[in-house]
Amino acid sequence: MHPEIVSDKPGTCPRCHMDLVPHNSIPKANHVTEDKGLGKLTWKSYMPLIVITLVLILTAATISIYDARMGFFAIEKTISYFMIGFFLTFATFKLMDIKGFAHGYQTYDLLAIKAPWYGYVYPFIELFFGLAMILMPFSRGLLVAEFVVMVFSGVGVAIKIAKKEEFVCACLGTFLKVPLTKVTLIEDFGMAALALLMFLLM
Q1: Beta carbons of 157 and 185 less than 8 angstroms apart
Q2: Can you tell me the distance from the alpha carbon of 148 to that of 167, in angstroms, rounded to the nearest whole number?
């Protein structure tokens, strides 16, 4: 009842007189790679990501239908619409809890491990990518930068997964209740693949 009162020996609590249990006899909880307070992750935990992705796809498709009606449809533009929405949306979630994200990012990103400040910069890089694509969606330099950054980011988490290492899971804000490992693989390698596809289609 009073967790601030600890003891290495049996006895009674001076406040409520309940029996004390030595703190070293309390079993430790198993370590899990999930956000604190989110509970056990199930397939339903992926619903926020699925819903957001479907909304972004629907939005990109709707704008593309309008483009087609106006006579200037291009698959590259459809891809850029999705990428813009994706970068801006995920950057926003990261910025909502940038400290929590940065802390978790330091556990697996190859650069953030050595330079923790990079965890605080990364959300702004994604924000820049999203805004820059609005201004210059067909910039080869921008697409190359996106490809390099996203692949590099994905490599770190892929290495962790391959080694089956346990690490603290960062959150994309405090609203996406999904394992960051899988979210990051989809986010990083998915965006890298789309950037490469756009580059090749140009």
Answers
A1: yes
A2: 24
